[in-house]
Write a structure and sequence with these properties.
Helix content is about 50%, strand content about 15%. By secondary structure, it is α/β, with parallel strands linked by helices. It folds into 2 domains: about 110 residues, Arc Repressor Mutant, subunit A, CATH 1.10.10; about 250 residues, 3-Layer(aba) Sandwich (Rossmann fold). β8 and β9 form a beta hairpin. Bound molecules: S-adenosylmethionine. S-adenosylmethionine binds next to α8 and α10.
Length: about 375
C-alpha cells in the first residue's frame, strides 16, 4: 500500500475539538503510510497464524525439519498431501520469511533454528503450540463481541475446544522447561518435602499438565487436582490413566471455593488465580486448606505493575493481552466476584491478593522473562 491509495485530505483533529474544529486538518501522509504498514503486518500475522496451524496439523514443519531443502513435489510425496495445495503453502511460508527459497532448484528449506520454534513442542523455544490458541479465539469471536455489548462473562469451559487443547500443549512446553528445574526448587523446602512424600493440590488443574509432571518427579507424594470445567477434568483423567498414575493422582470437578480442605503441604495455581471471579476468596480458601507449614505457589505470566511498565518490558504483551481479553477476563466476569484481574495484573497486584487473603509471608520466588512465581505462607 502507498500513500496514493489513502485518502489523506478530509479529517478532523479530535484534539482540537472546539466550535471551529470541524475544519479538516491535513494528515501526515508518511505517518498514515507507516501505520498502514504496521496494520498490514498485524493482519498478515493473523493470516500467517492460520497457515502455521495448517503446517503444524499436517506435520509439514516436522517433515521439513527432517528433509532439508525440498521441492513441492518432494514434500508432497513425503507427506501424502497434494502438490498444488503444498506449492501455495510453501510460497506463503517463503513470503513470511519462515522458509528459505532457492529459486534455482525450486526448493524450500526450514533451517534448524526455525525448526526449534515451529517443528515440535520439545524445544524450550517452541511457539507453535500458541498458534491454535488464536484459532480457538477466532471461533469464539461472535460471542465475545456480544459479551462486550451486554457485559456478560464467558465461562472458560464454554470456549472452543481448540483453546483447551492448545493451552495444554503450549503451557506444557513451559512447564516441562521450568517447573521442575526452576520453579519448585525456588520454593522454601518444598522440593525436599515432595521428595519425602507430601499432599499436593492443584487448583484449576485443567488437563493436568503440571500435575502429571510433579507426580512423575515425586513418586512418594500424592496429588489432587480440581477444576470447574468437567471437559478438562475428563481429559485429565485419561492423561492420568495413560501415565499409570491413578494410584497417586486424582482430579475432581469442583470450584476453587468448595473442595475438601485436607491440610495440603502444597497448593498450586498455574496460570489460574487471575482467571477466578474472586481471587482473594480463592486464596483465602486455599489458606484454610493448607497444613500449618504448607506453601501456596502461584504461577502467573510475567507483567509489569502497571500498563506502561508492561508495554515497556513484556515483549509478548500484545498476545498476552489478547488472550486475557478473550479468555481470562471473560471467565472471571462469569463468576461471583467478577474481579477480573486479567492475566497481566502484575506481581504487585497478585501479591496484594495473597496478602488480603491472610498470607503473612509472600515473596517473588522466580521472576523470569515469561513468568512470575509467588510463594505464599501462613
Ligand atoms: C488457563 S487455564 C489453566 C489450566 C492449568 N492450570 C494449566 O496450566 O494447564 C485456567 C483453568 O482454571 C479453571 N477455572 C476457572 N475458574 C475456576 C474456578 N472458579 N474454580 C476452579 N477452576 C476454575 C478453568 O476451567 C481452566 O481449566
Amino acid at each position: 500500500m502507498t500513500t496514493s491509495d489513502l485518502d489523506t485530505t478530509t479529517h478532523t483533529d479530535p484534539a482540537s475539538s472546539t466550535d471551529t474544529a470541524t475544519d479538516p486538518v491535513p494528515l501526515d501522509p508518511a505517518a498514515v503510510e507507516a501505520f498502514a504498514q504496521q496494520v498490514a503486518g498485524l493482519i498478515t500475522g493473523g493470516a500467517a497464524t492460520a497457515m502455521m496451524v495448517v503446517g503444524d496439523r499436517l506435520g509439514l514443519y516436522a517433515e521439513l525439519a527432517q528433509s532439508g531443502a525440498v521441492t513441492s513435489e518432494q514434500l508432497a510425496s513425503r507427506t501424502g498431501c497434494t502438490e498444488r495445495h503444498l506449492r501455495e503453502w510453501l510460497a506463503q511460508q517463503a513470503a513470511t520469511g519462515i522458509l528459505e527459497h532457492d529459486p534455482a532448484h525450486r526448493t524450500f528449506r526450514l533451517p534448524p533454528e526455525r525448526a526449534a520454534v515451529l517443528a515440535g513442542d520439545e524445544s524450550p523455544a517452541s511457539l507453535i503450540g500458541a498458534a491454535p490458541i488464536v484459532t480457538g479465539m477466532h471461533r469464539g469471536l461472535d460471542r465475545l463481541v456480544d459479551a462486550y455489548r451486554t457485559g456478560a462473562g464467558i465461562p472458560w469451559g464454554e470456549q472452543d475446544e481448540t483453546v483447551f487443547e492448545a493451552i495444554e500443549r503450549f503451557f506444557g512446553t513451559a512447564y516441562r522447561s521450568f517447573l521442575l528445574p526452576q520453579w519448585l526448587p525456588a520454593l522454601d523446602g518444598v522440593a525436599e518435602k515432595l521428595t519425602r512424600g507430601a499432599d499436593v493440590l492443584d487448583v484449576g488443574c485443567g488437563r493436568a499438565a503440571p500435575l502429571l509432571l510433579m507426580a512423575q518427579a515425586f513418586p512418594a507424594s500424592r496429588f489432587h487436582g480440581i477444576d470447574l470445567h468437567a471437559g478438562s477434568v475428563a481429559v485429565a483423567r485419561e492423561r492420568i490413566a495413560d501415565a499409570g498414575l491413578t494410584d497417586r493422582v486424582e482430579v475432581e470437578v469442583s470450584s476453587c471455593l468448595d473442595y475438601p480442605q485436607r491440610g495440603y503441604d502444597l497448593i498450586t495455581f498455574y496460570d489460574v488465580l487471575h482467571d477466578l471471579g474472586d481471587p482473594t476468596a480463592a486464596a483465602a480458601y486455599a489458606r484454610e486448606a493448607l497444613a500449618s507449614d504448607g506453601t501456596v505457589m502461584v504461577v502467573e505470566e510475567r507483567a509489569g505493575d502497571d500498563l506502561a511498565e508492561t508495554l515497556r518490558t513484556v515483549p509478548m504483551a500484545a498476545l498476552n493481552y489478547a488472550a486475557s481479553a478473550f479468555l481470562c477476563t471473560p471467565n472471571s466476569l462469569s463468576q461471583p466476584g467478577a474481579v477480573a484481574l486479567g492475566s497481566q495484573a502484575g506481581a504487585r497486584a497478585v501479591s496484594q491478593v495473597l496478602a488480603d487473603a491472610g498470607f503473612t509471608r509472600v515473596r517473588r520466588a522466580v521472576d523470569s522473562p515469561f513468568h512470575t512465581v509467588l510463594e505464599a505462607r501462613l
